[in-house]
Design brief:
two-stranded antiparallel sheet, 28% strand, alpha+beta, 160 residues
């Protein structure tokens, strides 16, 4: 009786480990990309339980598909009139297409590094086209924050 219980326990553990090696779960907040020998084969955006070949053959990359906030470091730049100002910029982004994301940058860290470079270039370019009084002015009708934000957003979308 004791040998049967041990045998059942061992078979159960081996079965669970085997199932772990050939399956994976995609949650509602995730998307996944399955690669076979390093080449993308499946893109999964629907939540569920999926099967795959073991690790040397297929690998699963999971990406969080929720909105992310990336805040660039405080940066000093100059306006059109050569007045230095300190700017704090942030971007809200998400991974909509795992395959395009994987091919373009690969990891979140590399994406944020590339995004930081694009933000710095864009903010210097756009802010350099505007005068200081469009940022700070006693007359609220002369402040152009919304226009400047829209220009920066258009530049970022164009560069991506």
């Amino acid at each position: 009786m004791k040998n049967i219980a041990i045998t059942i326990l061992v078979v159960l553990i081996v079965g669970i480990l085997g199932l772990y090696l050939v399956s994976f779960q995609v949650r509602e907040t995730e998307s996944a990309l399955v690669t076979t020998f390093g080449k993308p084969t499946r893109q999964l955006t629907e939540p569920g339980w999926y099967f795959k070949w073991p690790a040397p053959i297929q690998r699963v990359y999971k990406f969080d598909s929720r909105m992310r906030v990336f805040e660039a470091d405080l940066g000093e730049t100059t306006t059109r009139g050569a007045v230095p100002i300190i700017v704090n910029t942030y971007v809200v982004w998400r991974i909509a297409e795992p395959l395009q994301f994987f091919n373009a940058v690969g990891t979140i860290r590399e994406a944020e590094s590339k995004l930081l470079a694009q933000i710095n270039d864009t903010q210097n370019k756009v802010i350099g086209r505007h005068y200081f009084d469009e940022f700070v002015n006693s007359d609220p009708s002369k402040i152009r924050f919304e226009q400047i934000e829209n220009e920066m957003l258009a530049e970022l979308r164009h560069s991506v």
